[in-house]
C-alpha cells in the first residue's frame, strides 16, 4: 500500500494520517490518488498491445469521485445495478464505455440501460435476453448484448468469490449458450455482440484464465458468430500480505495478445480489486483496551459494518499503528469492533507496537469491497471517505448523519 512511516508517524504518500484524523471523525476511509492512477496505468500497460477497454468494476468501490478520477484516466465502468449505473453516469463516464452485468436485472434497470445506450448488457439467462428484446422492441431499438458464458472453470480462489463453475448461478453453460445463439436468430431487437466471462475474484494464477480463453475459443468456433467484443471480466488478485502469491499478469497478457490476434475481437476487462484494493486504509480509534484471561482485546470504533471482509470471508488485513511506538505489547492481542457479534473481529497478533486507548490505527488494503460492503448494522452511520491527491486532502463522501438513519 501507499502507507509508510516517517520516523514513528504513519503517512499516506506524503500526508500525515494523524493530521487527517485530527480533522475527521473516525472511522474513515482514506485513499491515495497516486496509487489508484498508478494501478490503473500499470494494468492498462500490461495489455497495451490489444488496446483494451478497461471497465472498472464499480462494485469494488463506487465512490463517485474515485469513478470520476478513473474516468479521466480513460476507464469505463462495469456496473451491476441501477444505482451503480447512475453513479458511473454522474462520474461522466460515457455510456459507450459502460457494461452492465448481473444475474437479476429488473425491468427498470434494463429500461434505464437501454435508454442510456450502454455499450453492452451482459445477459446471464435466456429470460433476460427475451426481456431485453421485448423492452427494446417497445422503444424501437436494437440493443447490443453480451452473453455471459459459464466456462465451468475453477478459479482456485475462495469458494465464496468463485463464479465460473457450473454449480454457480452465473452465466450460461456452453450448451445453453450455443442453443440460445441459434434460437435467438428471430429476436430482432437484440444483437449478440459479445461473449463475457468472470470466473471469480482474488485469482492469483494464470491457469484458470488460460482455461477460460480456451472455453471461449471453443464457443466462438461452434457458434460461428463474429463477436465484436470479448469481455474477459476481472478477478486479478492482489497481495494482502507480503508473502501472498502475486499473479503473473505479464504472462496472461501474452495469452490475451495471441487470443486477440486469432479472434480479432475488441478486448474488455472488468478489474476492481486490482485497481483500488491496495489504495485505501480504514482509520480507526482505539476505544478501550481490556484483558480477558490472557488476551488483550483492543476495541476499535470501526466495526464489521464499516469493514465487512474479515467477518464475511475471514479476510486478513494487516493493522498498523498510526504512531509506531518503540515499545511492544507481547502476548495475545486481538483487534475487534464494537458490534454485538463474535465475528466482529479484525485480526489477532502475538505482539504489536504498544498502543493505548485513544490512539489511532489503520486497517490496510481496504480500497476494494471496503466502503461498498459497509452497512448501517447496529444503526451506525456510514463512515466518511477522504482522498489524498497531490498533497491535498479532499472529503469525497461525508460521514452519514445519524439523523438520516433514525
Ligand atoms: C461481473 C464481474 N466483473 C468484475 C468483477 C470484479 O472483480 P475483481 O474485483 O476481483 O476484479 C466482479 C466481482 O465480483 C464481477 O462480478
State which percent range the strand residues make up: 25-35%
Number of domains: 2
Distinct small molecules: pyridoxal-5'-phosphate
Shape: elongated
Structural summary, described in words:
This protein is of the alpha/beta class. It has two domains: 3-31 and 277-405, Lyase, Ornithine Decarboxylase, Chain A, domain 1 (Beta Barrel); 33-276, TIM Barrel (Alpha-Beta Barrel), CATH 3.20.20. It is built from eleven helices and 21 strands. The protein has helices at 17-23, 33-46, 64-72, 82-90, 107-115, 126-138, 174-183, 207-223, 249-263, 273-276, 309-313; strands spanning 3-6, 9-12, 15-16, 28-32, 53-57, 76-79, 98-100, 120-123, 143-150, 172-173, 190-196, 229-231, 266-269, 280-292, 295-300, 319-321, 328-336, 345-353, 360-363, 384-389, 392-397. Strands 4, 14, 15, 16, 17, 18, 19, 20 and 21 form a nine-stranded mixed sheet that branches. Strands 5-6-7-8-9-11-12-13 form an eight-stranded parallel beta barrel, surrounded by five helices. The protein has a three-stranded antiparallel sheet with strand order 1-2-3. Helix 5 links the parallel strand 7 and strand 8. Helix 5 packs across helix 6, helix 7 (174-183) runs parallel beside helix 8 (207-223) and helix 8 runs parallel beside helix 9. The chain is elongated and about 70 Å long. The structure holds pyridoxal-5'-phosphate. Pyridoxal-5'-phosphate binds at residues 57, 59-60, 78, 101, 198, 201, 233-236, 270-274, 368.
Amino acid at each position: 500500500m501507499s502507507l509508510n512511516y516517517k520516523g514513528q508517524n504513519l503517512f499516506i504518500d506524503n500526508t500525515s494520517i494523524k493530521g487527517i484524523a485530527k480533522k475527521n471523525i473516525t472511522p474513515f476511509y482514506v485513499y491515495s490518488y497516486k496509487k489508484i492512477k498508478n494501478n490503473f496505468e500499470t494494468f492498462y500497460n500490461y495489455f497495451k498491445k490489444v488496446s483494451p477497454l478497461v471497465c472498472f468494476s464499480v462494485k469494488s468501490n463506487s465512490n463517485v469521485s474515485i469513478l470520476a478520477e478513473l474516468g479521466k484516466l480513460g476507464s469505463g465502468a462495469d456496473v451491476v445495478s441501477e444505482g451503480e449505473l447512475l453513479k458511473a453516469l454522474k462520474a461522466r463516464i460515457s455510456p459507450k464505455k459502460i457494461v452492465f452485468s448481473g444475474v437479476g436485472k429488473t425491468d427498470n434497470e434494463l429500461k434505464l440501460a437501454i435508454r442510456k445506450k450502454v455499450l453492452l448488457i451482459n445477459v446471464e439467462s435466456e429470460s433476460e435476453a427475451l426481456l431485453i428484446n421485448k423492452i427494446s422492441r417497445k422503444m424501437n431499438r436494437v440493443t447490443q448484448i453480451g452473453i455471459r458464458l459459464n466456462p465451468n472453470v475453477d478459479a482456485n480462489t475462495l469458494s465464496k468469490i468463485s463464479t465460473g463453475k457450473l454449480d454457480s448461478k452465473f452465466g450460461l453453460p456452453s450448451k445453453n449458450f450455443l442453443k440460445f445463439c441459434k434460437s435467438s436468430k428471430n429476436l430482432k431487437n437484440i444483437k449478440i455482440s459479445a461473449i463475457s466471462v468472470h470466473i471469480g475474484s482474488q485469482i492469483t494464477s494464470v491457469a484458470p484464465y488460460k482455461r477460460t480463453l480456451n472455453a471461449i475459443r471453443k464457443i466462438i468456433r461452434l457458434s460461428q458468430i463474429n463477436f465484436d467484443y470479448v469481455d474477459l471480466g476481472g478477478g486479478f488478485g492482489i497481495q494482502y500480505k507480503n508473502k501472498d502469491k502475486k499473479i503473473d499478469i505479464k504472462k496472461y497478457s501474452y495469452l490475451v495478445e495471441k487470443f486477440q490476434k486469432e479472434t480479432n475481437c475488441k478486448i474488455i476487462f472488468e478489474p476492481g480489486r486490482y485497481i483500488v484494493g491496495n489504495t485505501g486504509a480504514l482509520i480507526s480509534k482505539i476505544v478501550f483496551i481490556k484483558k480477558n484471561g490472557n488476551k488483550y482485546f483492543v476495541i476499535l470504533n470501526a466495526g464489521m459494518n464499516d469493514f465487512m471482509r474479515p467477518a464475511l470471508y475471514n479476510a486478513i488485513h494487516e493493522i498498523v499503528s498510526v504512531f509506531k511506538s518503540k515499545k511492544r505489547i507481547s502476548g495475545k492481542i486481538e483487534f475487534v469492533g464494537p458490534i454485538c457479534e463474535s465475528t466482529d473481529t479484525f485480526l489477532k497478533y502475538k505482539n504489536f507496537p504498544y498502543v493505548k486507548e485513544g490512539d489511532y490505527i489503520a486497517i490496510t488494503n481496504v480500497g476494494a469491497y471496503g466502503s461498498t460492503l459497509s452497512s448501517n448494522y447496529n444503526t451506525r452511520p456510514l463512515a466518511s471517505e477522504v482522498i489524498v491527491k497531490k498533497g491535498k486532502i479532499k472529503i469525497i463522501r461525508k460521514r452519514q448523519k445519524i439523523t438520516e438513519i433514525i
